[in-house]
Amino acid sequence: MDTPLELPSRIDALPEYVDYADKGCSLYPSCLSCQLPRCRYDDPGGAAAMLRTGRDASILRLARQDGVTVDGLAQMFGLSRRTIFRVLRHARD
What we know:
Radius of gyration: 22 Å
């Protein structure tokens, strides 16, 4: 008898018909327990870009509302003064 031909996997196949191993990534051991809003591999810049977005929003809020100085922000976030200035300039532009 002939062996049945294997069909190529479809990109839109139902999950129960796809051989998938949830191995996670370097941040989370499982994709199902991931706390990121999108997959780090689907976002340009990866996880670092997603985490920077939240960090930058916090820097802007502290600078504008609470009046924290550049030196204070740099110390608080463990960043250089130059990085703080870049975040503030990027928000201004």
